[in-house]
Amino acid sequence: MLEKVKVTGITFFEGNIDSKDIDSGSVFIEEHLDESTGRSKGMATQKYPLGKAANAKAIMHNSFPLICEVEFRRVTNGNVSKNTVHSIKPISTPQKQ
Question: How far apart, in whole angstroms, are the C-alpha atoms of residue 31 and residue 83?
């Protein structure tokens, strides 16, 4: 599923912790809060796995927030489904209001 989203930040880690090699990245995407209950309103930022640190490093040079074209992929372990970011491509910086 391809979407245009506002990316508010990005993180990564490459290294070794407790003899375990870690290579990961995450992206923070702005999303609407569920207003159907009447107890929330507005926007929040959701963290999504981005795969390897190289994926985060590839767009880290940009200024944030940033409008990106993101391809989400739904994955499951047989019991639980989740969305992951399969690809991310910067488009522009949002206009100030």
Answer: 13
